[in-house]
From TrEMBL:
Keywords: Repeat, Signal, TPR repeat. The lineage of its organism: Bacteria, Pseudomonadati, Pseudomonadota, Alphaproteobacteria, Hyphomicrobiales. It comes from Mesorhizobium australicum. This is TPR repeat-containing protein. Gene3D superfamilies: Tetratricopeptide repeat domain. InterPro entries: TPR-like_helical_dom_sf, TPR_2, TPR_rpt, Ycf3. TPR repeats lie at residues 64-97, 98-131, 132-165, 166-199, 200-233, 234-267. Residues 1-32 form the signal peptide.
Amino acid sequence: MNDVRLNRPAARGAAVALLLAAALGLAGCQTAAISDIATVEEAQGSTENISSLTAVIERNPNDPEAYNVRGFAYGRGGRYTEALKDFDTAIKLNPGFYQAYANRGLIYRFLGRNTEAIADYNRSIQLNSSYDTAYIGRGEVYRTSGRTQEAFNDFEKAIQLDTTDPRAYHRRGLLYQIRGQHDFAIEDFSTAISMSGGSPEPYNGRGLSYLARGDEDNAFADFNTAIGLNDKVAESWANQALIYERRGDKARAAKSYARAVQLDPNYKPAVDGLSRTKTS
């Protein structure tokens, strides 16, 4: 019965519009934890492995920076308990170490301990009111907690500080997007793209805003670029499928939705899209 209705253009358009709305809503909830921890590592300027960092600490047991660097290495590897211990030690050795507070706040956020995360970001900002990373981190806690105005203010502050971190523009773009301010969103996503280079997330974000404006060709180009950059992201495949579905190409849509479901069986826009487009 559903397949029969979807063969009618008006009904199919309504279903696709609902999928676009769902995709836009989920885009506003992205966390992008991996890119966050990668940014921490780049900011600190270390690619050494944990064993090498431990050797540094053994030679310099009172150096807070050594613990801070090993802490984010632990965080990158998902070893959050060890990361917290190292950041605790770094802060104990240097109570004014605002970077360590922000780094510990990031780990707390990954663990879902948002109250502690905000407290650490607040302390980091108290110690250095120009530290853009702390505003971005706190803004992300606010954003994923539904405190969108506070999140917007923090991303705005980081941008006013001339941040070179693309997350500030990407996250502010997501907030513009859920407000329906797609021109502003596209501008922010484009800035994030120019800063980040190889990240698929802002391409997906910009593509959805293009699509919301009715610019299907640019949306399709962005979704395809996102897949080319990283073909393991379910959202990118579901977004590509959305274009195929809008164009009435159910076979290609179903194939892309199926790939998205394979990557993330819980990604609802892909699950719903596949149920509409697959053939028996």
